[in-house]
UniProtKB/TrEMBL annotation:
Keyword Nucleotide-binding: no
Keyword Metal-binding in record: yes
Reaction catalysis annotation: 3-methyl-2-oxobutanoate + acetyl-CoA + H2O = (2S)-2-isopropylmalate + CoA + H(+)
UniProt superkingdom: Bacteria
Stretches the record annotates as Regulatory domain: 460-569
Protein's name according to its UniProt entry: 2-isopropylmalate synthase
Residues the record lists as binding Mg(2+): 54, 257, 259, 293
Localization in the cell: Cytoplasm
Organism lineage string: Bacteria, Bacillati, Actinomycetota, Actinomycetes, Kitasatosporales
Gene Ontology annotations for the cellular component aspect, listed alphabetically: cytoplasm
Alphabetical GO biological process terms: L-leucine biosynthetic process
An example molecular function term from Gene Ontology annotations: 2-isopropylmalate synthase activity
Role summary: Catalyzes the condensation of the acetyl group of acetyl-CoA with 3-methyl-2-oxobutanoate (2-ketoisovalerate) to form 3-carboxy-3-hydroxy-4-methylpentanoate (2-isopropylmalate).
InterPro entries for the chain: 2-isopropylmalate_synth_dimer (IPR013709), AIPM/Hcit_synth_CS (IPR002034), Aldolase_TIM (IPR013785), IPM_Synthase (IPR005668), LeuA-like_post-cat (IPR054692), LeuA_allosteric_dom_sf (IPR036230), LeuA_N_DRE-TIM (IPR039371), PYR_CT (IPR000891)
Amino acid sequence: MTPTDVWNPQRPSGMPYHRYRPHHERVRVPVSERGWPAARIERAPLWVPVDLRDGNQALAEPMDPARKRRFFDLLVRVGYKEIEVGYPSASRTDFDFVRHLASADAGLPDDVTPVVFTAARPDLIERTFASIEGLPRAVVHLYVATSPVWREVVLGRDRDGVRRIVREAAELMARRAGDTPSVRFQFSPETFNLTEPDFVLELCDELTEFWDASPDRPVTHNLPATVEIATPNVYADQIEYIHRNLARRDSVILSVHPHNDRGTGVACAELAVLAGAQRVEGCLFGNGERTGNVDLVTLALNLYAQGVDPMVDLGDIDAVRETAEHCNRLPVHPRHPYAGDLVYTAFSGTHQDAISKGLAQHARTARESGVPEGEAPWAVPYLPIDPGDVGRSYEAVIRVNSQSGKGGVAYLLRTRAGLDLPERMRPDFARVVQEATDDSGAEATPKELEELFRATYLADGGVRPAVWSVHTDPSGAHRFVCTLDTGDRTADLEGTGSGPLTAFADALTGAGYTVEVLEVTDHPVDGGTAAYAECRVNGTAVWGAGVEASALAARVQAVVSAVNRAAAR
Ligand SMILES: CC(=O)SCCNC(=O)CCNC(=O)[C@H](O)C(C)(C)COP(=O)(O)OP(=O)(O)OC[C@H]1O[C@@H](n2cnc3c(N)ncnc32)[C@H](O)[C@@H]1OP(=O)(O)O
Ligand SMILES: CC(C)C(=O)C(=O)O
């Protein structure tokens, strides 16, 4: 046995992993300098949603015109300024949608530029230009796959052959656009991440030159991880290499288009921006081919959570999500970053404890510094952003089940039922909740928690002071006089003490209870007072509670509740 066998007992999987080649054997990235590891993202890149094209082409049921328009309006509302609106040569719906945007009554905002997508085929390019006639501005986006496997298997061309397709398409585009500045060009070497970097540079530089790009009319070179196959650092190296070596760099908008096959689309996009990308294409909530395009919502809110303006307004994330779900006919996962139903919810005890302490601290800090809670710096454990910032309420932040602890239970009782249990009482009620949720195996809603609290502490029990009064004599001593109903009989009792409760405890000795009041607190509630008392009853410490119209009645009731709970044990 080697030392490794001691701590790593894993054995060969038996799966045919040898069928796959690592990325570095397929593409060599000639990195000589690497700036991205130390870079920071200090401003948002230009986000370009491609939901209406790449997202749409991945749907079993592509969007109908009404859904397309609804999605487009959402994207405009959120604040996207360049939007890929379709593949007009591919379907009548897409063609008609672009024509619709070109019509006077479409209300295309002055600061929004539609992007239209085309393959490098003359008939498709012609149709694409026919679709944008009358649009005040547009980007025509040309794509051709460039990597060895796609060249050989799909296109049946070598590097020169692909260069010729690109060149001929570019010529036709330039002819159709004339020198109108309202049409700009975009090029995507599809499968960029699998392509030899020198070939990408060759194609991009040639187009920059041929289209005569300038800082006033830049060309967009968009470098897709069409199928994500390497770790994000590799993509970052690829992007940085192109960024450093592109010709006429100030006339090029360097864009990326990550997919998410390895589940690292977001990381690829972020590292690509560190590496020099200025524009990111993706889809809301990561819809798109296979495992999806990179998720633009996550990217924007990741920046937001770092104190960087995301330049899009996601303040009502549920409305954004509902529209995307409706248009795509696909649900967003409950655990989806920032937007899922459960992402601001804690079920587990220690998380709930930390969150409720954090929220209380946040409220205190805001109060003390005189700023609204929604403006105060955010530092609440387990919640990377304030749910309120994306339109989520705090109501669902803490939910109770059998894995919850006293902190979460107390938080819900306080915030949802107005009952602020003293710290030392919380474990007592948490045990009751634990038993109930262990039995049911289900979550306890705030309403159920309140009912459980009432059933545990406030229900009528064995003894009840039917009539009672407290008298204070001039020396300050208290006398408690009551008729105690014990269910099967009543007894007239009287006791004295330094306060009303000690006098009541003294009276209870007449009914056979030795009661010592150990701790009692109260606070106002709607229409009265809630009181909590810990009493030693016949030698056992027990908590009780009362909710009554007056503070004294609530305190007396809390002692009665403790006595009854002790008797029921
Ligand atoms: C990574 C991406 O997302 S790329 C975008 C993919 N999106 C779509 O395909 C959605 C819309 N597409 C369509 O509706 C259709 O594919 C159309 C209308 C564009 C073309 O349809 P068809 O003419 O029937 O061709 P088909 O769909 O079979 O595509 C295959 C052909 O396109 C060629 N092709 C693939 N990419 C390109 C390209 N970028 N430029 C030129 N030709 C291309 C293939 O080599 C193949 O040609 P071949 O038939 O000579 O072998
Ligand atoms: C062609 C580009 C933009 C694309 O959609 C991809 O590679 O996924």
